[in-house]
Design goal:
232 residues, alpha/beta, Rossmann fold
C-alpha cells in the first residue's frame, strides 16, 4: 500500500465502531460461508484485532498480519491470551514459514487500498498459501464509484442498531474527514469482476461473487476465490 495510506493507518486510533464493524462482518461471514472448527485461517489486514478476537475461539489456528506496525502491535496485545493465534511479520523483512497453507484467507477492506499491480502480486502469494479446497475472501471490493455520503449513512444506521450512535457521531465522523482527505490524495482502487476473474483464472482460481457484501457497505462487493480440492 502506498505511503499515504500507511501514514493514515499508523495514526488511526481505536474506536468502538471498529468492534461493531468486526462483529457485523463475522456474523455475515459465518452465515455466508460458515467457519469450520478445524480450519487454519489467515486474517490478512487484521487491523486492531477485533475480527481476530471473534474468530480465534471458532477455528483451530488463526494467523494475522497487518501492513501497519501500529495496528499489528495493538492486535498482538488484544489477542495475546489466545494460544492458537500467530502473527506474521512484513514478508519483505521477515520470511513467512515455508509450507504454510490456509483453508481460509480473509482480506476484508484491504484490496481497495492496493494498486492493481500490488493486488496481482498478492493474489499469487495467497494462491500459493491456499490448502486444497481453500478460499480467499475479498470483501469491500469497489467495482464502480460509490457515494461516500451513502456510506456515512450506512455507518450511522449500523451504529444506531448496535447502540453506539452518539459515540460514532462524536469521534468517528471527525475521523472521516482525515480519511476523505487521504482518499483525495490516493484514490481507492476499483476492479471489475471480469478483470478479477481473468487475474484469478491465470492462477487457477475460480471466482464466485456473493449476493451481498460481507460488510454493511451495500454498494461494494465480496468475491470468493476458490481452489479445487484436487489442486496441489
Amino acid at each position: 500500500m502506498e505511503n499515504q495510506w500507511h501514514a493514515y493507518w499508523d495514526r488511526l486510533e481505536e474506536h468502538i465502531i471498529f468492534r461493531v464493524e468486526a462483529a457485523d462482518y463475522v456474523t455475515r461471514l459465518e452465515a455466508a460461508l460458515g467457519l469450520e472448527p478445524g480450519a487454519r485461517v489467515l486474517d490478512f489486514g487484521c487491523g486492531f484485532g477485533f475480527v481476530g478476537e471473534l474468530l480465534a475461539p471458532r477455528v483451530a489456528e488463526l494467523y494475522a498480519f497487518d501492513a501497519s506496525d501500529q495496528m499489528q502491535r495493538r492486535a498482538q496485545l488484544r489477542l495475546a491470551s489466545h494460544a492458537n493465534v500467530r502473527f506474521l511479520g512484513p514478508p519483505g523483512t521477515t520470511p513467512w514459514p515455508a509450507g504454510l497453507r490456509f483453508d481460509l484467507i480473509l482480506v476484508n477492506s484491504v484490496a481497495q487500498y492496493m494498486p492493481l499491480d500490488e493486488l496481482q502480486q498478492w493474489l499469487g502469494r495467497w494462491r500459493a498459501m491456499l490448502a486444497p479446497g481453500g478460499h480467499v475472501v475479498l470483501s469491500d471490493l469497489l467495482t464502480h464509484d460509490v457515494d461516500p455520503l451513502r456510506e456515512v449513512v450506512e455507518l450511522l444506521v449500523l451504529s444506531a442498531r448496535r447502540g453506539c450512535l452518539m459515540s460514532v457521531v462524536r469521534k468517528a465522523l471527525g475521523e472521516l474527514r482525515q480519511y476523505t482527505k487521504t482518499r483525495r490524495v490516493r484514490p481507492l482502487s476499483q476492479i471489475a469482476f471480469g478483470d478479477l476473474r481473468e487475474r484469478a483464472g491465470r492462477l487457477g482460481l475460480a471466482v464466485d461473487v456473493l449476493p451481498s457484501n460481507l460488510t454493511y457497505k451495500k454498494a461494494r462487493a465480496t468475491a470468493v476465490l476458490s481452489m479445487s480440492a484436487t489442486d496441489p
